[in-house]
Amino acid sequence: MGGSGHRIWPTTIMFKKMIALTLLFILFVSVKLNPVSAADVSTVPWGNRYFEPPRTNGRPGFIPFNQIFSPLQVSGNSANVIKSGQYDVGVEVNPQQAWQSGAMWSDAPIVDLSSSAFQASMNLFFGNVPVNFFSNPGDGMTFALTGVKPTVIGNNGASIGVWGSQEASAATGAANDAKTLKKSFVVAFDTYPNQNELDHSIWPGGGGPVRQYLAHGYPNQPSAYTTFGIPFIGSRVALDFPADAITKVPNNLADNAWHAFNVSWQRDADNGGGTLTYQFSTGGNLGLISKNIHWSNADVTRIFGTSKLYMGFTGSTGLNTEANVVSFRSIPGIVSASGEVELYKNNQVVTANTGLQSNDRVNYQYDLHAMSDGKQSWPISGTLTAVLSKASGISYLNTNGTRLTLGQTMPITATVGNTTVTLTAQLTALDTLTVTGIPQFPQGRDVKLSFTIPGQVDAMEPGIPPQQVKAQTGTVYGDNAQLIFETATADKLLSYQLIAPNKEVTQPEVPDGDLTLDSVPSFSFKKADGTNLSVADIFNQRYPGVANLMTDRSQWLLQQNTAQLKSIIVTDARNQSPGWNLSVEMGPFINKVTQQPLEQHPDDAGTAMIQMIMRNNVTTNTQLSYRIRDIHQVVPVTSAPPATKTGQNSVNISAAAAGIAIKRLPHIMAGTYTAQLTWMLATTPTG
Questions:
Q1: Residue 390: closest CA among 435, 329, 345, 439
Q2: Which SUPFAM superfamilies match (predicted)?
Q3: What kind and span of H or E run contains 473?
Q4: Strand pairing class (355-357; 494-499)
């Protein structure tokens, strides 16, 4: 089937997929447990009292690590490494207790400002403390870089472990305080308004109910401080940030949620310095805060005294408290790599001022660069997966020039030096393209991998005003690092304008496609406790097969191999789809040795019955399937109405769970029994 133009569909078109279904009846079962190996860190559980950082496409939101960070070994340090078995999975800078001061530092310098690039990705957690008349979180946490590893714990309370004492009377005194973080740069997340102390310049006249801010500065520099007078007390110091170094945050950061925080470095082309970029997700209407700081080589020497820096975190509480916790998605020096992406139109880079019009062809250019100074290969085992965010108003194009539809896959040719590798891209959600098979970047080698993905601007309604778009890029996932694709712009996002036509522009003629059944699940059942069904279970009528499976889960024989519970994927690439229906039937269970069927129950209504919990991967709606009995009874699964847009009728449904019930049988022989499921996809008759 294929071609373009008008098509005449036959009354019925039938696709069949036959899937084996297996039941195993035995009397004795043994269980083998495999320990987590050092090479399989992707299976390490989070396993601690703080809730797990959010997953993306089922992938963990953290990476395990070992022997990278340690609490400063001095009295009074409240910091702890968070363990999960033999692995470190995060750091607790301080617990939610009063008058705490914590400091966690890398064991060695892991940030190198003489390198061409690095990236550090983290999730930050500030606890769960509401802001009201009776409550307020405090005092905050910092991300810090220093050329000299500290030997003392910083001041607590308003100083949050890095700033000079609030008791100082002059800027130089605060900068040179014994507990001020020396030779350093910090990003401070301040959650308590000490407006009569260090925060006086920030909140001189009070503010709203939430008075929190994000700022960067240099604790050891007198320019970081100013002075103000307090009646009957005298002069005190306050923090003094340039306007472009501070952002007031109107929402509470201690909101029981993880906040993404990314730091990256890009060396200047002339090696005269570089730009450090940090981005923080506020979780509120302010969205993403993005800041760029340029340092010349002379600045680096003046601020740090060296280009090899320790990375760490400090936090503190006073009477007001909060927990300050960090998990990591990538740690500098462990995997030394970076990811870049640009959008091109007519071989020119698309910028915030570029206008994209209906049906314009564009190309995404993705580059991954691993440097030779990393301490580990990336990943340690297996391959990498890129989860790319589809930009608003732009569709991906398949190899035949048609728009990629939900669930469809296509090959991508990537270059690695003078060789090529084939990757696989799949539109796994309406706004997500997942690229798999990215090969390992070996430790000790300088390797660059590049690939291009074509796209086309969607047709826009004529006359609507121009739309400015800022689009997220995507992340590359490995077991020991998760790196973000960055653009060359200040905010690291893809930016462009969508310009609607003055008159309607139709989509170019697209070749008519096919209706195909691409994927269906298969099943292998066991009891709820993981053991195999025994002959005694059937004799004793443990699984009567009468009650609806959803009302009595104790009667379920459960699907154990979740890898077999793959999605039901129907691709309808026809331009004018009359609709379709998907149904299934199941035959009797056959003994694999004797080839004899499982005894049929006298009521002729079948001996076994399957039901599935089906989840639509686009709408996330779930529903219970019809009962599928072992008597060759055809039952409907799902259907689609007529549609006029290509791909509109494609579906991707997960078999989120499946169970089977069996009626009591007076005679049964132990063994393995297999039944055949026949899936039938039929186009709707056009009349």
A1: 435
A2: Concanavalin A-like lectins/glucanases
A3: none
A4: parallel
Q: CB neighbours of 487 closer than 8 A, spacing ≥ 6?
A: 340, 341, 342, 473, 493, 494, 495
> Are both 66-330 and 337-499 of the same fold?
no
Mean pLDDT by 10 residues, the chain (687 residues): 37 49 40 32 84 84 90 94 92 96 95 92 96 91 97 91 89 94 98 88 78 96 90 80 93 95 94 95 90 97 97 95 96 90 94 94 95 88 92 92 92 94 93 94 93 94 90 90 87 90 65 82 75 72 51 59 70 83 89 80 73 77 81 88 75 78 76 87 74
The highest-level CATH class for domain 337-499 is mainly beta
Q: Burial-class residue 211 by CB neighbours within 10 Å (0-12, 13-18, 19+).
A: buried
Tokens of 599: 């005894």
pTM: 0.66
Residues 505 and 496: their CA atoms lie apart, in Å, by 20
Count Cβ neighbours within 10 Å for each residue of 58-72 and write b for 16 or more, e otherwise.
eebbbbbbeebbebb
Q: Are 114 and 333 in contact (CB under 8 A)?
A: no
Domain 66-330 -> CATH class: mainly beta
**For residues 140 and 160, is the Cβ–Cβ distance under 8 A?**
yes
Q: Any idea how long the chain is?
A: 687
**651/582 Cα distance (integer angstroms):** 11
Q: What does the domain layout of the chain look like in residue ranges?
A: 14-29+514-683, 66-330, 337-499
d(CA 675, CA 19): 8
Please name the helix (run of DSSP H) or strand (run of DSSP E) that holds residue 226, with its range, or none: strand 225-230
CA–CA gap between residue 468 and residue 151 (Å, rounded): 49
